Please model this.
Amino acid sequence: MIKNTLYERMSKIRDLINMSRKQHILLQDRVMWRILCAAMDDIEDTEKILEDFLKEDFDSSDKGIEFLPTYDVCDTLIAQQTSVEKLHESLKIPYTKDPSLENIRQICIDTKEHLKNEGIGKAPIPTNIPDLIANQKYIFRKILNRVINTLRDEELEHRRKFKSKKLYSTFHITSYWFEKIYDAIFSEESPHALMVGGHVNSILSSVNEFKADLKEREEPDDNISDIYENINYSLEHIKKYFCSNENTHLQEKDVYIFAYFARRQVKELESIAQYLDEKYSQGHIP
Model:
């Protein structure tokens, strides 16, 4: 994307709102999410119309040809202003109307009224449209820069809030509990055979703590719900094998497979925790 354009700024805004945590929050309100997406599309679409207008070479002797694009561009300038307001509203970022934009809007309204009242070719168009477009571009570059900075600052402030609390530490002794479960599986005389239920509960407690920490940070975890289910399913079968008085069809190798699979799934959560810890330690966003 060409530098110093509205397109570049909109691309950066899209990157920021599509970060997993921000998108997760925004998607809680589907209606507002659709408004946001429409506003971003409209800002870019109206910018394309304005750029195309500036590239046209109109015959000044034909007032009919000049009338139509001028009327459309006035509509487009107004529509772009509305879309930028909607962008702020959907992101819950305060928006103060710029007096210069209000002036541009009023000029566009007056120009449209003039064109309708005077008719095609009966009076010269009183507006320098390229100047209006240039002024609006200049103002919106600054406004969209503030949106980008606000989104960045919000994310960095959130990271600073949780930076010192490491998610990875939630699983710091799960390896120990799994080792003791393996001991119990392969040795009937292992003292840990009587403590498997406690080891399982400790592992599940770590997983639940991880889930709670993600919720507190407003990080999405719906994409790893299957991992939670796999861990619960495997560990509950292990617990039943050692702790239930009921007969079970499980054999020693079955229980080992459940333990091995549960350990691999917990390692997946550990990798996610480590990735998030690294992300939260970063003090900048590109």
About this structure: Residues 6-162 form one domain. Residues 129-162 form the longest helix (34 residues).
